[in-house]
Each structure stands twice: as C-alpha cells, then as structure tokens.
Amino acid sequence: MTARTTGATLGQQTVGAFLDDLAARVPAPGGGATAALHAAQAAALLSMVARYTTGKKYAAAADVVKNVLRASEAERAIAMRLAADDVAAFTAVTDAYGLPRDTHEDKERRTAAIAAALAQAASPPAGVIRLATSLMSLAEELLPVANPNVITDVAAAGEAARAAATTARLNVEINLGGIRDEPVRQALLDTLAQVDDLTVRAAAVERSVREALR
What we know:
Helix content is about 75%, strand content about 0%.
C-alpha cells in the first residue's frame, strides 16, 4: 500500500501512487483534489501549445503567446497548491466530525468546529472554479494564434478546465449545507454561478477546433 497523500507529498507523487490513494478507502484525496489536477492539466496543455507556437511564423502573436505561457505556468502551480490544500482541508473536516459529543458543551464545540471546517473545505474547490475560469480565458486567447498542429490540445485544455469547474462545483455544493456564515455562503454561491457559463465557453472552443479540423 502506498503512503497516503498529504499536502506535502502530493506534488512529489507518481501518477500511479496518487491513483492508489484516490482508490483507497480514505477520506482524501477525493473529488476536490481531482478537480484541481484537472485544472493543472489544462494549464500544462496551454503551456505546451504556447511553446509550440513560437518562431518567425508566429512572430505577430509573440506577445500573446508569451503572456499565455507566463500565466499558464503560474496557474499550474496554483492548481497544484489547491490540490494539496483540498487534501488538508478535507482531513480537517473528518477530524472535526471525530470530536467528542458527550456533553452539551462538547456538542456545541463539535458543531462549531464542523461548520468552520466545512467552510474551509469549500475554499479550495471554489478556488479551482475561479482558476478554471481564468484558464478558459487563456484557451480562448491562444486558440486564434495557436500552431494548427496542436490546436486540439487547446480544446483538450478547455475540456480539462470544464471538468475542473464542474467537479469542483460538486465539492462546494456538498459543503454548503453545513456552512453557517451567510457572507461565506453567498460568496460561494457567486462562485458557483460562473460554472454554467464556463461550460458553454468550453463547448465553443471545442466546436471551433473541430470546425478547423474539417
């Protein structure tokens, strides 16, 4: 059996080791970390396309490509951090549920700890949604100038960003019921509202790429 994924080890794991942890009967990693890794893959794909869109042939788009590459590299690092944060946050939720509830005071402390942990657990997937929205914008910016030999990877990046957002949405929604802080709830709902538009944009990028292939 592999060592369990933690915030400190996630970035150093092999893909196989991460999948072993994902498949195991343990609370984390789960869907939240998976959503963040979808975003990381979207960012990596955009970086790859940008690196193939260089040289004299693409000189007119050099500034766009440079900006996309810089942003996608930074956002890949953010996605990996969010994956690790999700593992840590979900572990805190399970710890809160394990607190004693023998007395009235114990129960009150446990309830408050659970509510705080759920709010914290919703933060990484909400961050993934915002990140996926930014990555979708990068895909839209890169597509018109991208090397045609790798334009399908722009669509793949868009699909990975869509998967990141829709998966993260589920992980926010499951925590909403236990969050008592109304401003926090409203901020999360505002973030969730971005997802439907993102899925439409991802479909438009895919459609544009498939039309170009024809």
